[in-house]
């Protein structure tokens, strides 16, 4: 059975490679968004927003290298990363921000798909409608932010708690204690929001995708090329929404099991945060392939040609309704 030292040795090699590779992919993705998304309209900014959330998530995971000692109640959160020298209040705040980035990234995918549906259903969507829709989808994020502020003020901010943790960390060299996660009502609500968002996101996206495909099939005057590009864009977003379900949700099932049974599973403790960051590596690849303008440009840079689709059209555009 692997020991703590084995996991730490592996992660000391894996984390730098994972970080550098993911940053390169995210940078390429951002460059494509900035320079090759002129026809994507508002989707350009939402996709860029998703990328920024991913980069923030990646930096927090690698620089702090959090670990949950989930076999203890309350759960002790430790940091093994280079930023473990920061104050406990700062580390705890960053730990909570990390959870917000996960939730925000998932919401961005849903918003992108729903805006796509809106552009297909209506010839023109007003700015007010889009702003209100954007805010409505972010209600879970606003609630989660409120929970985070409450937890910071009650669990990390009190002076006696900071002094107690600082005293414990004074003699620690391998890690620093970030804080304790107590199974209180607000913590459980925050947990339900983040994990629930991960679980529900693919189902919501698949539902929106079904409506989009239904609309596309009804537009008889749209060319097959146009429909193919819209479908490819939507499929890519749907796949992205499902990625966290396979990387993130299983770890939190193990976390729930460990907390309720007080069982120690080191794999879960060390990899629960890395599993949350894996989409940061995968999503740029998915986007660069399924967004036709990106794929065509990437293949062009590699000296190849994409013959699957002809002329590039705007993925943000609607489709003229067929006249009956």
Taken together, the total number of domains comes to 1
Q: What quaternary form is this?
A: single chain
CATH class: Mainly Alpha
CATH architecture label name: Up-down Bundle
Proportion of residues in β-strands:
under 5%
Descriptive overview:
By secondary structure, the protein is mainly α. 73% of the residues lie in helices and 5% in strands. It has one domain: Rhopdopsin 7-helix transmembrane proteins (Up-down Bundle), CATH 1.20.1070.10. The chain has 11 helices and 3 strands, in the order ααββααααβααααα. Strands 1-2-3 form a 3-stranded antiparallel β-sheet. Helix 3 runs parallel beside helix 7, helix 3 packs antiparallel against helix 8 and helix 5 packs antiparallel against helix 7. The radius of gyration is 22 Å and the shape is globular.
What labels describe this entry?
324 residues, mainly alpha, Rhopdopsin 7-helix transmembrane proteins, three-stranded antiparallel beta sheet, 3 strands, disordered C terminus
Short summary:
It is a multi-pass membrane protein. The protein has 324 residues and is mainly alpha-helical.
Which helices and strands appear, and what pairs or packs with what?
Elements: H1 4-35, H2 42-64, E1 66-69, E2 75-79, H3 88-121, H4 127-137, H5 139-156, H6 159-170, E3 176-181, H7 185-218, H8 224-247, H9 249-261, H10 266-290, H11 292-301
Antiparallel strand pairs: 1-2, 2-3
